């Protein structure tokens, strides 16, 4: 059986592809861009779902397909992502193309609670995609998971681990409860409903057995990581709103932080539902978070990840600030000092153009690091610039290696920090 999976690089999609392939299915992965983790199987389809708004965009990729599983989803609109394009427009075109191509079986991942309340564009567009599927003459199944947690760390799964590693737990005000669902439990219904004799025309909540406050979820992860219970403090409303706005600003630069304004709106509602219909239809008994964590003890790598979670945004804030401000200072208050350092050296007649060139290079690599699509290039560029400064500076002003403030010695930890940034750059 050949299955086309959209959103195949996401938390659910990537794990689902691996699970289906292990069970003997042929998988056609639809990816937004190249660069996903290696996967043995058919070549992927590179397609921006937000722009695939016509049936003809999908029809060539449905030839020979027996079933479609739509796992695509984005949290919030940004320069690179569109909730309406992915959840409604692209999904609707895919479902229409399935109907035209005779691909009867369509399993669609939505989100819990969207049929009851739509506090943000995320849930409103998710519901629009659900309705578009239900209007089609297809054997459809809609799965509406709560917050999905599993061994892979991305989105909420990563955030909870990061929070669990903090010495004190900051609690956002006005947060609802979560019936978190385990990733393996969320994948199992797909295998069930891909069977030819399975039921269809169902919309099922995938929810765990317990409705937990976020602090309890984090507390369970904290125990899993081997840490003692942490003290809690509730963030003032203005501080919490400011953090969500910071997340929105990071998204404008191409990053995908889980804390954004859509998350703020959705988290007030919580993520709870009734799993009984899902249990009855499939016979799957969802696991509690505590039981799932006990079955999979934390490794040292997972403790590293948790401790680095909030260090990463600090790194990618400090490095662009460092490079851009270095360039600005070189062109303003530090101008005369920079020129004087080069006067009397082999490039003395070019001292002023050299300072200008260095300042522009500094600001350029800082901007590249800050912009997520070019951050890797920026990091390599920064390493190259730092090495050039070390080599050229040694040739022109070797005495600076012996300065008490260590202007050249500081290049060494700066280089190391850039390699750390490269090591933690990937999100999934």
Shape: elongated
The structure class reads alpha/beta
Output the strand order for the largest sheet: 3-2-1-4-5-6-10
What's the N-to-C terminus distance?
A: 28 Å
Q: How helix-rich are the residues, as a percent range? A: 40-55%
Q: What is the radius of gyration?
A: 25 Å
Count all strands and give the number: 11
Please state roughly what percent of the residues sit in beta strands, choosing from under 5%, 5-15%, 15-25%, 25-35%, 35-45% or over 45%.
5-15%
Largest sheet, strands/sense/barrel? 7 strands, parallel
Q: SSE order in H/E notation?
A: EHEEHEHEHEEHEEHEHEHHHHHHHHHH
pLDDT < 50 stretches? none
Number of helices: 17
Mean pLDDT: 93
Please outline the helices and strands.
Elements: E1 2-6, H1 11-22, E2 26-31, E3 45-46, H2 55-58, E4 67-70, H3 83-101, E5 105-109, H4 121-134, E6 139-145, E7 148-149, H5 156-164, E8 168-171, E9 181-182, H6 183-193, E10 202-206, H7 214-224, E11 231-234, H8 237-252, H9 261-269, H10 276-282, H11 289-295, H12 300-308, H13 311-331, H14 335-342, H15 351-370, H16 375-396, H17 411-423
Parallel strand pairs: 1-2, 1-4, 2-3, 4-5, 5-6, 6-10, 7-9, 8-11
Helix pairs in contact: 1-6, 3-4, 5-7, 5-12, 7-11, 13-15, 14-15, 15-16, 16-17
Give a written overview of the molecule.
This protein is α/β, with parallel strands linked by helices. It has helices spanning 11-22, 55-58, 83-101, 121-134, 156-164, 183-193, 214-224, 237-252, 261-269, 276-282, 289-295, 300-308, 311-331, 335-342, 351-370, 375-396, 411-423; strands at 2-6, 26-31, 45-46, 67-70, 105-109, 139-145, 148-149, 168-171, 181-182, 202-206, 231-234. Helices cover 50% and strands 11% of the residues. The protein has a 7-stranded parallel sheet with strand order 3-2-1-4-5-6-10, with helices on both faces. The radius of gyration is 25 Å and the shape is elongated.
């Amino acid at each position: 059986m050949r299955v086309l999976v959209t959103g195949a690089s996401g938390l659910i999609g990537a794990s689902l592809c691996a699970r289906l392939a292990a069970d003997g299915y042929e998988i056609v992965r639809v990816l937004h861009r190249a660069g996903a983790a290696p996967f043995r199987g058919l070549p992927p389809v590179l397609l921006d779902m937000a722009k695939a708004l016509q049936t003809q965009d999908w029809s060539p990729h449905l030839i020979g397909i027996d079933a479609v599983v739509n796992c695509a989803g984005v949290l919030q609109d940004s320069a690179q992502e569109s909730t309406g394009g992915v959840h409604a427009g692209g999904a609707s075109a895919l479902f229409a193309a399935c109907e035209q191509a005779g691909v009867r079986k369509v399993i669609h991942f939505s989100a819990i609670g969207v049929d009851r309340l739509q506090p943000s564009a995320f849930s409103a567009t998710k519901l629009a995609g659900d309705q578009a599927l239900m209007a089609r003459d297809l054997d459809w199944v809609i799965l509406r998971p709560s917050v999905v947690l599993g061994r892979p760390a991305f989105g909420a799964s990563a955030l909870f681990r990061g929070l669990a590693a903090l010495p004190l737990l900051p609690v956002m005000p006005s947060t609802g409860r979560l019936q978190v669902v385990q990733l393996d439990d969320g994948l199992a219904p797909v295998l069930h409903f891909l069977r030819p004799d399975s039921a269809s025309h169902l919309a099922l909540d995938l929810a765990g057995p317990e409705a937990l406050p976020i602090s309890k979820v984090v507390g369970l992860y904290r125990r899993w990581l081997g840490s003692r219970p942490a003290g809690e403090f509730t963030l003032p409303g203005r501080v919490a709103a400011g953090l969500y706005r910071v997340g929105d600003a990071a998204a404008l630069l191409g990053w995908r932080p889980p804390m954004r304004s859509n998350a703020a709106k959705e988290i007030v509602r919580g993520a709870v539902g009734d799993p009984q219909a899902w249990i009855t239809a499939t016979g799957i008994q969802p696991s509690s978070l505590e039981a799932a964590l006990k079955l999979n003890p934390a490794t040292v790598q997972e403790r590293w990840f948790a401790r680095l979670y909030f260090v990463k945004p600090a790194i990618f804030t400090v490095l662009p600030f460092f490079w851009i401000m270095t360039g600005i200072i070189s062109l303003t208050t530090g101008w005369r000092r920079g020129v004087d350092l080069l006067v009397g050296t082999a490039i003395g007649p070019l001292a002023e153009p050299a300072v200008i060139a260095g300042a522009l290079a500094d600001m350029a690599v800082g901007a590249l690091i800050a912009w997520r699509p070019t951050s890797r290039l920026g990091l390599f560029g920064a390493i190259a610039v730092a090495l050039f400064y070390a080599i050229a500076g040694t040739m022109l002003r070797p005495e600076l290696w012996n300065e008490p403030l260590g202007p050249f010695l500081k290049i060494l930890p700066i280089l190391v920090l850039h390699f750390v940034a490269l090591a933690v750059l990937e999100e999934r």
